[in-house]
Structure formats: structure tokens, C-alpha cells
Amino acid sequence: MIKNITCVILTKNSARNIENIRNVYHLFEKIVIVDDYSEDDTVKKIEEIDTEKRVKICRRKLDNFSSQRNYASSLAETDWVFHLDSDERIDDMLIRELHMIDGNINNTYFIAFKVKRKNYFIDMHIGTEDKIRLFNKKKLYFRGEVHEDLDIKSEDKIGIIKGAILHKSYQSIQDYFRKLDLYMKLEEERLKQSEKGWFYILGRLVKRTFEHFKTLIKNVIANKSFLKPLLWFCLCEAYDLLYFSIFLYVKYFKISK
Questions:
Q1: What DSSP assignment string belongs to 96-136?
Q2: What is the pLDDT of residue 67?
Q3: What is the b/e burial string over 11-38, where b = at least 16 CB atoms within 10 angstroms of the residue's CB?
Q4: Which of 38-47, 92-101, 186-195, 221-230 has the lowest mean pLDDT?
Q5: Which residues lie below 8 Å from residue 140, measured CB to CB, with a gap of 6+?
Q6: Measured CA distances, 254 to 57, 192, 200, 249 (Å)
Q7: By CB distance 3.0 to 4.6 Å, which of 87, 159, 208, 211 could disulfide with 113?
Q8: Are 40 and 17 a contacting pair, CB within 8 Å?
């Protein structure tokens, strides 16, 4: 069992993903779960799994993802944390890698590790991206109110671990639009408190489109296929263009008036 790394999970109506949490329970000795006041029996099912009383469960209203993740990290007893979403699973290779580095994690000169995340849309693999999920919470923290990222500096030493996180976020079209609606509400709250205008929002659109295009090229090369990576790209762009260009611009002007 992994003892020097705490697994951190955010939940919200995650009862259908309880098997993912059960798998983590048998892998990590220390687990922190921050629940955004789930309306289903997420917390009850986690408590049923936690027969050894090793899971620290806290309820906290989601204001933005960065503060939620930073708060969850602060609850960990260890310096090193591994962030996982309830709709994500760890493959066998990554499990072996985590076991291998656990013993010496506090002596490494790296402050974080990258891992591949395979994204699925209704059980179809549509793309792979690199994510930093294992890091020293004393050295790094999340920033960004809606789309959270770690505050990485150019001089920071980042390692790479083998294996992958399997991300099955959208099990149906309804899931896609449900998450879209959540992000829209978070962005609306951010805009209410922000003085940023059109150029800032357009800059974000251009930056994210460029990032999506780079990932598209990487996935085409890695998969030697164009259709599935293109689907992933289109989903990302549809999300951003619909979300930022139409919904948020309208809401921004409503807020400004």
C-alpha cells in the first residue's frame, strides 16, 4: 500500500463512480475526499467502503476548482499528493510506478510528475494528454478559477511516470452538457468579480485553441489516425466556442449593464 502519497479526490454526485474510489481505497493508505454537497448517496457509499476509517471526508461548497483542490491538498498529512477525479481510474502500469516511487518520494529532486491521461467519450478513446497530478503541495498550488492548472515555473524540475489515468468524464451527451452548464455558472461568477474585458476573453480563446491544436497533432501522430483525435478536438472547440463566444459574451454584457 502507498504510504507517502495522499490521494486527493473531489466528488459531486459521484455514486455511479464508486468503484473507482473503491480501487483507490485498496491502493493508498491515506485518502482525502472533498465533497461538494452531493445530493445522491456518494458520501454514504464512501463511508461504507472505509471500513478501516482511513478516509478523511470533508464537505465544502465549490466556489472554483483551484480553491477546492488547494483546500483538499491542505488536508493531506503527507507533502506529496496525487489528485484524481471520481470519473478517473489508474491503469496497472501507473499502479506499479506509484508503488516504485513511493519509498523515495520525499528524497527526489523533482517537485512534480507528469502522467498521461487517456480521454474517453462514451467509451471511445478520443485522445491522450499529459497532466501533472502527483506533486509536492509545499512547492506547487493550483491557480485559475474555472480551468485549474498548477503554478509551474520554467526552472521547476518535473519528472515523468509511466502508465496512464483513464478518464471517462462523458458517458453520455447529457454528461457533456451537464458539465458545460457547471463551468458556465462558475465562469459567470468569475466575470462578476473581474474587470477583464473583450481582449482578455479573446486571448483565452486563442490560447486554448492553440493548445487543443497541439494536442490534436500529437494524438494524430501517436494513434496514426485522424478521426478520433479530430473528434476530441471538435468537442473541445465546440465547448470553448459555445461556452466562451456565445454564452459568456452574452452573460458578460448582461453583467456589465
A1: HHHHHHHTTGGG-S-SEEEEEEEEEETTEEEEEEEEEEEEE
A2: 94
A3: bbbbbebbebbeebbebbbbbbbbbbeb
A4: 221-230
A5: 111, 112, 132, 150, 151, 152, 156
A6: 38, 10, 17, 9
A7: 159
A8: no
127 pLDDT higher than 50: yes
Phi, psi of 9 (to 5 degrees): -130, 135
pLDDT at residue 11, rounded to an integer:
97
d(C-alpha 221, C-alpha 214), whole Å: 11
User: When comparing pLDDT for 109 and 124, which is higher?
Assistant: 109
Helix intervals (H) in the chain: 18-25, 42-49, 65-74, 92-102, 173-192, 198-223, 227-240, 249-256
The C-alpha cell at 181 is 452548464
Question: Exposed, middle or buried by CB within 10 Å (0-12, 13-18, 19+), for 108?
Answer: middle
- Cell of residue 126, nine digits: 478520443
CA distance 185 to 165: 27
Question: How many Å apart are CA 157 and CA 24, to the nearest integer?
Answer: 27
DSSP reduced 3-state for 38: coil
Nearest to 79 by CA among 151, 4, 20, 141: 4
Beta-ladder partners of 59: 35
User: Is residue 32 pLDDT above 50, yes or no?
Assistant: yes
For CA atoms 229, 69, 30, 134, the dihedral sign is positive
Q: pTM value?
A: 0.75
